[in-house]
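Q: Give me the 3D complex with zinc ion.
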Amino acid sequence: MAGQQKQRMSLVGGNPTVMPAMEVPNLLKTKKESVRTVRLRLLPTKQQDKRLRKIADTCSKLWNEVNYVRRKAFFEKKKVNIEETYREYYERYKKLVGCVTTQQVLNKNNEAWNSFFKLLKLKKEGKLPPFIKKLTPPGYWKDKTLGKRIKRIIIRSDRYYIEQVNNGEGYITLKDFNVKVKYVGRIKWSGKQGRLEIKHEFNRWFAYIPIEVGEDPSKSNPKGYIRGGCDKIQRGKPRGEEAAFVDIGLNNLFAAVVTSGDAILVKGGVVKSEYYWWKSEKRNTQATRDLMRNNGLKIWERFHHRYLRALFKSSERLRHLYRTAVRFLAKELHERSVKSVYLGYPYMITQDNGNEHNTNIWWFRKITQWLYDVLKEYGIELFIVLENNTSRECSVCHVIHENARVHRGLYVCSVSGRKMNADLNAATNIAYRVGYVVSVKKVESFIVTHNGVKPVTPLRRGIAQDPAVKPRPSRRGEGHPPQLCGVASVCQADQRRRISRRNPC
Ligand SMILES: [Zn+2]
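A: Here is the predicted complex, encoded as structure tokens.
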């Protein structure tokens, strides 16, 4: 079978479980293909901070009020009158934050409601993808626990401009409010600037600027052009015709199999430890906060602050890891002449930790979006394979063996006796579902860290080996079964050392 690859049946067209990522409802944002969003950190002075807070609070109040009226109508099963409520609140708020900003906030709320209605329609037709379980109307800009509004400002594309001082910093001028705020952050893209959103996230201000890459500014707003680095999204072409099949998991963030026989494992150990660390931090601060609050101690707000910090930090740090991994994977696949990537919908991930379903699925959506965007830079196409059981099935016999996952990471076929990495097994199954037969020849392992992606075995890169069942010490003190001589001898030596330490004579 080595090196053999063939196409079993017609691709994408006749196969309902495979679809281009762009066509999966609500999986990717409904933004324009050519738009990339840049996120910049704002560093306002004290007075500017005060002013931004005031404006943002009014914007947020407007959002919440108009949303309240619309939600009320929705839950009372009346028609949500978008136009009438729009007019009403526009008149009420235009004097407070100016016509343009009022319009922008209302437009954004309109968009949120329209996409909600679109999803409702899809649900009626039964076309929702399986990972969307519950539909809720647009929410409020509000921290539920503190009862305070979340601060956001929305600025129309021609009501601000950017002055770059150098590659990493500059100034954003908000024309309507006469504010010139310093920003830090690298702008990667060049193109026409879109609607600016300023968000207050855990005591920091961030500006989100969508850039229509390569597009010229409109004549009415010649200043609305941002000069970053690249004025084209796609800067590379696929080097060959290979296909890659990717499985997303927790232990192996990505397990990718290429039709040429190469396999890439991107290990997510750091992601996992980061994830669980912040999870416990969140849990602890939340518990303390609630305890304090239930006993009427004012200090609870401090713990809420710490809770919010944990939320912010965990998402920031995970985001960094995921994005590093995504970019790395795209680059590696490009180097292996990949033209199309098939991404499996993760089902098994919920088995390791059932109640973390939502978190993981949420990241799945994000990762898919990022992967889609980054692959696009190389001209690689992304498809989604909606399929269960790919990690339980055997990639040799294509049936589900019971108890084949010996350890979490090891899959043993009980018929042929072949041992495989469980995630690579899943990736091979995704290939099979799509219509390819791939046999893995060479496995390379990498690990994502905060300092980039690193090869796991730098000196032994790319040696294909079937993983073996490693003996695991059953319980401390009990020792090891005698037949496992390698580990046991080390352990006995250890014990001897310990004994000698106890009796120095
Ligand atoms: Zn088998």
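A quick observation: The pocket of zinc ion is lined by residues 394, 396-397, 401, 413, 415-416 (CB under 6 Å).
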